[in-house]
């Protein structure tokens, strides 16, 4: 029996099957490569989000500490401002008192001068 007429179609069929297998394998490999690439990109993004979350948490903690410090400083500044306001009033009152002292001294001198003048007249 001569198998020559069957060899040609059989080889053609075999080449077709091997070619189809290679095509399917290549397509699947490309898909897997693309999926792996996308997974890698997603992992990179997730790591970036995790880092940003940590940074955001640190910023929130720092802001809370700054708020507390600001409250403390505000209280200190309010106390200081109260002292300054009272000091301004005291300085103004002190100037008034010095002026009044000068006026009283002048009045005393005038009074003494008048007393001295009246005393001279009585002699």
Topology:
Layout: H1 4-122
Describe this structure in words.
- There is one protein chain.
- With 123 residues, the chain is mainly alpha-helical.
- Helices cover 97% and strands 0% of the residues.
- The chain has one helix at residues 4-122.
Which descriptor suits the 3D outline? rod-shaped
Structural class: mainly alpha
Major β-sheet, in short? none
Count of DSSP helices? 1
Average pLDDT for all residues: 86
Tell me how many strands there are.
0
Helix content range of the residues, please?
over 70%
Gyration radius, in Å: 52 Å
The amount of beta strand, in percent, is under 5%
Order of helices and strands: H
Low-confidence stretches: none
Multimeric state of these chains? Answer: single chain
List keywords for this structure.
123 residues, mainly alpha, 1 helix, 97% helix, rod-shaped
Outline:
This protein has one helix at 4-122.
